[in-house]
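ARCHIVE CARD
Drawer: 12
Card no.: 0347
Subject: one protein chain, sequence and derived structure
Cross-reference: see card 0346
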Amino acid sequence: MQLIRPAAMTLTAATAPLSDETAWLSTRTYAIGARVSVATADWCTDYEAVQAGTNNAPATNPTYWLDLGASNRYKMLDASVSSATKDTTAVTVTVAVEQRCSHLGLFGLTGAKQVTVEQALIANGAAPWSMTRSLARSGGSASWSDWWFTQFEYVGALVLAFPRSVGNFALTVTVAGDADTMVGVGHLAIGRAVWLGETLVDAEVGITDYSRKETDEWGETQLVQRAYAKRATLRLTLPDAHADTVQAQLAAVRAVPVIWDCNGPDTAFESLRIFGIYKEFALQLGGLNQTTCTLNLEGMT
C-alpha cells in the first residue's frame, strides 16, 4: 500500500473551457440568481448573485455573491472528486511541477476511455517519455451474451507510476473518450509515493451515500441523489522497524486529502484507489517482528 501526498503544481495550458459562466463586469447590473466567473492569474471561481447590485466585486462582497467554487477548467484541481472539469471528446492539461514526484492519480473520470501522459524535464530539455493506458475495466464477462451485448465499462479512478522519479518537469495529461462525447475529470493529483505496508486480504470497501429520501406531510416521497464518498477499512502488515516511520507519516497527513493506493503488487482494484483522508488508524506492535496497522479511509465527495 502506498500513500501519495499531492505536490504543488501550476496549470500552464488546458483545452477545457475556462468557465460555464460569463466574466463579471463592474458596469453590469446583476439580478438575483445571475452567475458569473472571476479569473486571477492562476485560478477562476464561479459566483451566484444573492442580491441585485452593480459594481460589487464577488471576491470581496459575500453579502452580494455566493462562492460556487472552482470554474470548469480548475475543478479537477480543487479538493473535490464530484466537481469535474469537462470538455467534449477529451480533457487535456499541462502542469508544471517543481517537487520530485513518482505517481499520478486521476479520480472521478466520466466518459473517458483512455489516458495519455507525457512528461518532459524543464531544466535540461531531455527527451520526454509518454504512456497511453486504456481505461477499460478488466475482469472478463460472465457469459458470451455479456461479451456481445452488454456495454463496456471503464474505470473511474487510476493511479500511474512514472518510469522515473524526477522534479522540475512539465506533465501533459490527456483523458479521452469518444468523439463529441462529454469527458469529465473529477480530480488530478501528482506526488511522491511512500510505502506503508502490505494490505491484508480482509479489506472492506464501500461508499457513504449522501442521497436523501424526503417525504412531505401528504406522503409524497422524493429521492434526492447527492454525492457519495468511497470508504475502506483495511489492515496492513509491516516490519516492526517501520512502525514509528508509518505513525509519523500518517500523523503528518491528518485532515489532508492524499492518494491512497491500497493495492499490492498483484492486485489492481479500482475500489482500493481512494483520494481522501484517514479517519483513524491504530498500530498493533510486535508478533514475529511484524506490526499490524488498522486504517479507516474516507474519500472526498
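Annotation on reverse: The helical segments are 144-149, 243-252. The chain has a mean pLDDT of 91.
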